[in-house]
Design brief:
Layout lengths: L4 E6 L6 H13 L7 E6 L5 H7 L5 E4 L16 H6 L4 E4 L2 H6 L4 H13 L3 E6 L3 H5 L3 H13 L8 E5 L13 H19 L1 H6 L1 E5 L18 E4 L7 H7 L3
Parallel strand pairs: 1-2, 1-8, 2-3, 3-4, 4-5, 5-6, 6-7, 7-8
Helix pairs in contact: 5-7, 7-8
Bound molecules: phosphoenolpyruvate.
Phosphoenolpyruvate binds next to strand 8.
Length: 248
């Protein structure tokens, strides 16, 4: 089964009314290969609704985080239902900045992933090892642990995209080599085959994130298990258009 290439732009806690206007104008006026490439941007909450209203319809809009409860007394949290209500149909979960800065556990990430899926969102679930874990040869153990936590709670994997993002490559300018990324992606697919079955594994998109930019994205295409990118810093710049269009 062919897996549709996926490119996400994680704007993190960046942007202003002015810069969002420029980014949206750029996306709306550039010829993007959105027919073949599922393209989704993840602005900070403040700009979600206006972005959804203004960016062309074949570009998805997603939240960077979501809570695991419907609504109620959870000050400061993001409701999946409200996202859906506003046409925001994607969310990230488990981004390494959430895991490290906000101390989100594997289990909490799994709860949020499960709940977001149940509410109808498509989830880009982020996993990845720290530098210390890589140096201790723990990379595969870490990603498998993070994946198992999700698999313990989630049955239907049709609306999950896995983003493999080595923490040491995020926002550092230091990318994993395409070979390093492929090695982990292949292990993730092997895990999926064993845990979820061959047909789920074959359809599961596993995208790479970590200092991807307009200059290095092409190198990753030669590997069959790399199904797209989650892009941070470069997604705020016009080079994001080149990343979307690299898969032609
Ligand atoms: C990210 O935020 O998910 C990310 C991959 O960031 P960057 O591309 O800046 O490393």
């Amino acid at each position: 089964m062919a897996r549709k290439f996926f490119v996400g732009g994680n704007f993190k806690m960046n942007g202003s009314l002015e810069s969002m206007k420029t980014i949206i104008e750029g996306l709306n006026t550039t010829k993007l290969n959105v027919g073949d490439v599922e393209t989704v941007i993840f602005p900070q909450n403040m700009y979600l609704i206006t972005t959804r209203q203004q960016v062309k319809k074949d570009i998805g809009v997603g939240a960077q985080n979501v809570f695991d409860k419907k609504n109620g007394a959870y000050t400061g949290e993001n409701s999946a239902q409200s996202l859906i209500d506003a046409g925001i149909t994607y969310t990230l979960t488990g981004h390494s900045e959430r895991r490290t800065i906000f101390k989100e556990s594997d289990e909490f990430v799994a709860d949020k992933t499960k709940f977001a899926l149940e509410q109808g969102l498509t989830v880009v679930a982020c996993i990845g090892e720290t530098l210390a874990e890589r140096e201790a040869n723990e990379t595969i153990n870490v990603v498998v642990r993070q994946l198992n936590a999700i698999a313990d709670k989630v049955q239907n994997w049709s609306k999950i995209v896995i983003a493999y993002e080595p923490v040491w490559a995020i926002g550092t300018g230091k990318t994993a080599t395409p070979e390093q990324a492929q090695e982990v992606h292949a292990e993730i697919r092997k895990w999926a085959t064993n845990k979820l079955g061959a047909s789920v594994a074959e359809g599961l998109r596993v995208i790479y994130g970590g200092s991807v930019n307009g200059g290095n994205c092409k190198e990753f295409l030669k590997f069959h298990d790399i199904d797209g990118f989650l892009v941070g810093g470069a997604s705020l710049k016009p080079e994001f258009h080149n990343i979307v269009n690299v898969h032609s």
